[in-house]
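Question (not urgent): is this output format expected?
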Amino acid sequence: MSAPGLKVFTGNSNRPLAEQICASIGVPLGEATVTSFPDGESFVKINENIRGQDVFIVQSTCTPTNHHLMELLIMIDAARRASAHRITTVIPFYGYARQDRKDQPRVPITAKLVANLIVAAGANRILTMDLHSQQIQGFFDIPVDHLFASPVFFDHVERIKMRSDNMVVVSPDVGGMKMAAAYAGLMGSQLGMVWKKRTSATTVESVNIVGDVKGRDVLLVDDITETAGTLMNAAKLMREHGALSVRAAVSHSLLSPMAYDRLKLGHIDELITTNSIPVEPRGLPITVLSVAELLGEAILRIHNNESVTGLFKVKGF
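Got this back:
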């Protein structure tokens, strides 16, 4: 019996990224119809034979989140009913990840619910990147390959010559300390943190800073930004404490109109992000780095039953 062939399909959430992934690994993007009926219901048809094939479905659950999630679930079901050998869902950005615990009475754990839906639809494996919290991997009853965007960010930071004794990596909140510590260790830099107080879902008041940023280049690191409130308040605080420059490295930028307005204030010299979801710079200092090669290499290794551990390493480390 011959080994299963490799097939890559995508929904409508981030087709350019899927095309870049396919270009990087030298396989054509699979032909599938993914559209909607006039009443809003999603419709999927896979337009080629995938019986016995190793199928990868690329789909971020970004805005409109619920619509793209339904597309993903229906594509998984279509592939399963078409007798695919294995179905791996490639989710560069996993939505609902911030709803990962019961932090108040009578609320759901939606990150777990979404994981259940993906497994129930027929997925055999998950490939994702920079989850909001590591424990979400345990919400799935199937294997999860969790990548980090840090190697991509590291290469960019190296190119702009930020890596030096003068650089300090800062977490804009307490929850991001583990991620910031990993970046600081990787780059041989000092570590800092902002203690913040959230006043509403869209408003954050930065209160104090732990660490010395005076006369230093600051790199803020975070996994998600939507309104840029946390980043802007942290950046403003860095400026007030004498930082020479402030850049932000954010894995997933779901930039709302409020975020663009805040970025125009100029507190951040550069927002460095990835194309895990579509991002429009709109003339602002936003640098979008591609994670296509990273995800493409992971897809090849999964397909060939090889370890993905090497993808966590950065050149020279």
